[in-house]
Write a structure and sequence with these properties.
Blueprint (H helix, E strand, L loop, with lengths): L8 E3 L10 E3 L13 H10 L7 E5 L5 H8 L3 E6 L2 H14 L5 E5 L12 E4 L3 H12 L6 E5 L10 E6 L10 E8 L6 E7 L4 E10 L2 E8 L4 E10 L2 E10 L2 E12 L2 E9 L4 E10 L2
Bound molecules: S-adenosylmethionine.
The site of S-adenosylmethionine has 23 residues, from helix 2 and strand 4.
Length: about 290
């Protein structure tokens, strides 16, 4: 990246982002080097629960602080930056921190980087860059955690957001930082036929999905639709809370399961207010 004066504060394309979403960029729209305060780095890694066993990629790694922080938590981490001088700085800082064996830095364009092996991806970029990355991020392995400092991904709402005061930050959201977490959702959409032995037998779930938000219709046997009270899809984990008549009696159900391709398996807790039991279930997608 050419070194030249920061183009100053630029308004994002009119109306595209919220009133807060004033961003900073080089005048060609690319992302400049601005560091995340150490406290933000710590919160980013904590919200993603980074630990040993993780492989973290920081897209636009700057001086390497997120990569180093991840390695200090026992993860392996890769920093990608388009600026070779920053890549060299990242390596130097990792050596000083004593984490060379768990870190790697590479000078390359983040849009041309293979992200498929990451369990966690961190970003401190720009709203429009996040949006451009979004289709690729959605194809990652379900359960991959994505963390972005400050910028969101429009209609793809985060699974969690925290906000903290960061007066040391020279740019961004008026002395505050937001940290957003997304968990790449499994594909849950379609018509599922479930078997719940000893509790109604054949169930059917029709699931619509937008990002991690799911809308479920449920029916049991040849009976009426049941009431779906709440749902959640987090990576491959699905929860569906249902009330209704099964075998002529009113029950509460909490289905918990794991999606693996066209199969779901899990347990359902059924209760009638007095007694409660847990039954295994499996479901198969019939498209
Ligand atoms: C705002 S800084 C964030 C640095 C670090 N991740 C942090 O949070 O402290 C963004 C970084 O992205 C890098 N960058 C910008 N465009 C890039 C691209 N297309 N590919 C890779 N890195 C890029 C910049 O050189 C800069 O170091």
């Amino acid at each position: 990246m050419k070194l030249r004066a920061l183009a100053g504060f630029m308004l994002c394309a009119a109306g595209l982002f919220s009133a807060h979403a004033q961003s900073w960029a080089w005048d060609d729209g690319t992302v400049p080097f601005v560091v995340s305060p150490e406290e933000v780095v710590d919160r980013m890694l904590r919200i993603a629960e980074v630990g040993a066993g993780d492989y973290v990629i920081d897209l636009g790694s700057g001086d390497g602080r997120i990569v180093i922080g991840a390695a200090r938590r026992g993860a392996r981490a890769l920093g990608i930056d388009i600026d070779p001088t920053l890549v060299a700085k990242g390596r130097e800082n990792a050596a000083v921190a004593g984490v060379t064996d768990r870190t790697e830095f590479s000078s390359q364009d983040l849009f041309e980087t293979d992200l498929s092996k990451a369990s966690v991806i961190t970003m401190y970029l720009l709203p429009e860059v996040n949006l451009k990355l979004r289709p690729k991020l959605l194809t990652l392995k379900p359960g991959t955690r994505l963390v972005s400092h400050d910028w969101n991904m429009r209609e793809w709402e985060p699974d969690e957001t925290i906000e903290l005061r960061t007066p040391e930050k020279p740019v961004g959201l008026g002395g505050k930082s937001r940290i957003h977490l997304w968990i790449v959702p499994a594909d849950a959409r379609g018509h599922w036929v479930a078997e719940v032995p000893l509790h109604g037998g054949a169930w059917a779930f029709d699931i619509g999905q937008e990002f991690q938000a799911i809308a479920v219709r449920a029916a049991v046997g040849a009976g009426r639709d049941l009431t779906v009270r709440a749902t959640r899809l987090r990576g491959v984990e699905i929860k569906i809370a249902i009330t209704g008549l099964v075998g002529g009696k009113a029950w509460n159900h909490l289905f918990k399961g794991t999606i693996s391709g066209d199969r779901m398996t899990g347990e359902v807790r059924v209760s009638d207010g007095e007694q409660q039991r847990t039954i295994p279930w499996t479901a198969t997608r019939r498209k």
